[in-house]
Amino acid sequence: MTVFRLNQIPLLSRSALDRADHLRADEQSLKEGWPTARLLRVGPRGAVRYESEALVWEAALELSPEPSPDAVFLGVQDGVHLWAVRDEALTGTLWDLRRLADASIDDFTAGVLSTALALINWHAGAAYHGADGTPTMPAKGGWSRVAEDGREDFPRTDPAVICLIHDGGDRVLLARQHSWPETMFSLLAGFVEAGESLERCVEREMREEVGLEVRDIEYLGSQPWPFPRSLMLGFAARADPGRPLVFTDGEIAEAHWFTRDEVRDALAAGGWRTRPEAGEAAPAGGARLLLPGSISIARTIVESWVAAG
Question: Matching Pfam families, A to Z (predicted)?
Answer without folding.
Answer: NUDIX
